[in-house]
Amino acid sequence: MALQTQPAMYDAREVYGPFLGNRWVQLVSAIIGMIMIANLQYAWTLFVPPLQEAFGWKLPAVQLGFTLFIMFETYTQPVEGYLLDRFGPKIFFTVAGILVGIGWTALAFVKSLPALYFFYALAGLGAGFVYGGSIAVAVRWFPDRRGLASGLIAAGFGGGSAPFIPIIGKILATQGYAAAFLYTGILQGFIILIVAQILRYPPWERSHSTHSTRDKTKQDEKRGFAPWEMIRTPHFWLIYIMFIFMATGGLMVTAQTKPFAKDVGIAASFVIMGVTADRISNGLGRILWGAISDKFGRENTMFVAYTLNAIFIALMPTLGRNPWLFVALIFCIMLTWGEIYSLFPPATADRFGTTYAASNYGVVYSAKGFGGILGGYVAALLVQAAGWSLVFYVSALMAFLAALGALVLRSMPKPVLPSMKSGDGGFTTQA
């Protein structure tokens, strides 16, 4: 792969210049974009109790906003991915900066639940643009190190809110939730607009649809799966179900950390410590497991990480009532959870190619929306009905089933496009 990467890098610098044509500049820029949407998901738990206290809203009602955010961030990914593949990331990051800036900033001024839902969902739509574009940049510029590149990109999202958590906590304590929404919303939107002016797809990895007609036959032999072809394979559905199962537990912890801590009597200082620790471990885990997967295989890495995640989640309702163990378990849960965002993108590209990378991962990533529903609104309803233990144990079981799914995925031969074989045009597999 190194022999292919060097000429490609030379071509990129010829087309874009020495700065924009440097793949590390592209990667770092995409990471910065991801950092700027991290608070939208991972700082949300800090805002939940203040919103409840300010307006008297119940936990399920507030967390429905989180679920809608996840849905708009994820369920629009297939369409966004198609447009990204066709036109490139620049225009979409520009739109994203506007949506994120307006959506998150406007939460400072909402007075009703419908307004909360609308603007949080609007911010989620912008976050989806950034997320899909950033992952597409990683897998296209780094075909030789997809796991590491995807891990670094995902770490920007998973760990990007870590430096903001203490700051947001301080603003919440001294100026209130409105000021925290306002300051971070303006900053995030502005920086995403700057990133938009830098990001490019590599010139050798343009969308399949942009190639000339005379090269069509040759490129058809090399192209990857289109989304409508991918979803006809059993590999896709196994990956999709695994994603849902893993997303549920981590998103539940993400959304419910502060409400759980409040119910079991964890002091506010330990909550801030725990949320900050989970941002750090979430980011580190994405890089660590992504790099490990490049060496030891995606599925082997998934099995180990997901099994550990199941164990740590299962321990939370008992050991998590101790403040120090609460912080430690939050750290460990996120260390073994965030890697889903650095393992599923390359696992998808490994099987289905990079021609439609953004579109394909957009479809896979929509599984997170179901995880958001289960880990956000449904989990809050279950807490009211049966308490915290049931929620954690069910999430742990789902994580372990995902780990077993990784072993099944490992045993499956890779799919092959219908155009690459003779016969009735259906799908086949190869070892």
UniProtKB/TrEMBL annotation:
InterPro entries linked to this entry: MFS, MFS_dom, MFS_Riboflavin_Transporter, MFS_trans_sf, Oxa/Form_antiport
Subcellular location: Cell membrane
Membrane-topology descriptor: Multi-pass membrane protein
GO cellular component term, pick one: plasma membrane
Chief place of localization: membrane
Keywords assigned by UniProt, alphabetized: Membrane, Transmembrane, Transmembrane helix, Transport
Molecular function, one GO term: oxalate transmembrane transporter activity
Ranges where the Major facilitator superfamily (MFS) profile domain occurs: 25-414
One family name in Pfam for this protein: MFS_1
Gene3D superfamilies, sorted: MFS general substrate transporter like domains
Annotated transmembrane regions: 24-43, 55-72, 92-110, 117-142, 148-168, 180-199, 235-253, 324-344, 364-383, 390-409
CDD domains: MFS_OFA_like
Domain of life from the UniProt record: Bacteria
PANTHER family cross-referenced by the UniProt entry: RIBOFLAVIN TRANSPORTER RIBJ
NCBIfam families, alphabetized: oxa_formateAnti
Name of the molecule in the record: Oxalate:formate antiporter
Gene behind this protein: oxlT_1
